Amino acid sequence: MTSPSIAFHPLHRLIHWLMAALILAQLFIGVSMIGDLSVRHGQFIQWHKAIGLALLALVLLRIGLRLALAHPAIPNDLPRVQRLAAGISHWVLYALMLAMPLLGWAMLSAGGYPRPLQLPAIAPHDLHLYALLRQAHGWAGYLLFATVLVHLGAALMHALVRRDGVMRSMWPGPLRR
Question: What pTM, to 2 d.p., does this model score?
Fold first, then answer.
């Protein structure tokens, strides 16, 4: 990684906002899918699988970009506990963004359900394991939603209260001073 910059690379910003939109869509589709057993149910499942696979590919790319490209440092004047919380929350977000599609893929494998693009099974066909993975996928979804809300709150705090450029460093489009 090169030295820190004042903003994230444009590709990193594009993937961040694309993933943000897809994760929000995925959370709403997931909740709708559980509560709707109408004729739309099958369509919700197909969208959920396709978006989950896209998110898996994007998070792998995003992790690679995060490791390869320079990114802004956390402001030095941020209290130590907030710097620590920021670091931990980013690790949690990355872990959940990676775990959610893998849990979904494993759940489909364990349940014997079709996987997108005829992906191979990554878990044995076992209905008890399926039930466990389904519950883990659901709880991880709630945790992801809560973590996204904390992330959004922190971004708004940086933008509206601290006005320290943190939000601007990830905002899409050209940087303005």
Answer: 0.90
